[in-house]
Design goal:
The chain contains six helices and 13 strands. The protein is of the alpha+beta class and 254 residues long. It has three domains: 33 residues; 87 residues, Thrombin, subunit H (Beta Barrel); 79 residues, Trypsin-like serine proteases (Thrombin, subunit H, Beta Barrel), CATH 2.40.10. The two termini are 24 Å apart.
């Protein structure tokens, strides 16, 4: 991540300074701004620099802080739930949440982000196989300063989950990314009849309204979505299923 950032900064500096050597006696030319906010933002998007950081040392407190900008609060009518930013494009973004969060009858879905920005959904698509839904938002009218504060989750190590691994859940019951609980994996691939699906079974507390929130490993990788819970046990829909349904519903060439 830091290496990509250094490359991006170098490209900006290379563009910002005139190339070539001044002739003898020639004064310094006036500097011009060659990188506009729109170009800088597009660079961040296309280089993947809006992805959440990953902590190789497993500092969970830092991992929690890193993923918070990727957590959202979703309101459908008078009902509240949580969501996670899965993708960020130049002019839109894609959130993932539970189908039961989006299933309430309402004309509009409103989303609040960790930065304080908010907006209405452009499109809602729900899976007919799993308790899973997607919300697409148009951010083309947002100032680039607000867009730069968004983050999408890192999904690189989702298949490396084992029984006993430390995990944490982040949701938005009491405010965006305000609810955090730490626990361990009881079984990374457990079949729950009530969901008719294989899930990540966790020994971890959750709170009503955290449905759709993120489940993360200690390094900050997004590994699944908070879907249900009872007492100190929770079930999270695995990332592999989320990505499979995303590709099925939206196509691989989005």
């Amino acid at each position: 991540m830091r290496r990509r950032l250094l490359v991006f900064v170098f490209c900006i500096l290379w563009l910002a300074f005139p190339q070539g050597v001044l002739a003898e006696g020639e004064g310094v030319r006036p500097m011009v701004q060659t990188v506009m906010p729109v170009d800088e933002y597009r660079g961040l998007v296309h280089l993947g620099l809006l992805e959440t950081e990953v902590n190789d040392n497993g500092d969970m407190s830092q991992s929690v802080r890193d993923v918070m900008p990727a957590i959202a609060q979703i309101r459908v009518g008078n009902f509240w739930g949580s969501g996670v930013i899965l993708e960020i494009g130049e002019d839109d973004l894609l959130l993932v949440t539970n189908r039961h969060v989006l299933a309430h009858e309402a004309d509009m879905t409103y989303v609040r982000f960790y930065s304080g920005a908010s907006g209405a959904s452009r499109e809602m698509v729900c899976s007919d196989r799993y308790d899973l839904g997607f919300v697409r938002m148009d951010i083309s009218g947002w100032p680039y300063e607000d867009r730069r504060k968004l983050r999408f989750v890192n999904t690189d190590s989702a298949e490396n989950l084992s029984k006993g691994d430390d995990i944490f859940l982040v949701g938005s019951t009491d405010g965006v990314a305000c609810n955090v609980y730490v626990g361990t994996v009881a079984d990374p691939w457990y079949y729950f009849e009530e969901f008719d699906s294989y899930m990540i079974y966790n020994y971890c507390k959750a709170k009503g309204g955290m449905s759709g929130g993120g489940t993360f490993d200690e390094h900050g990788h997004y590994i699944g979505m908070v879907t249900g819970g009872y007492d100190d046990e929770t079930a999270s829909l695995p990332l592999s299923i989320i990505l499979e349904e995303r590709d099925r519903l939206f196509g691989t060439n989005r």
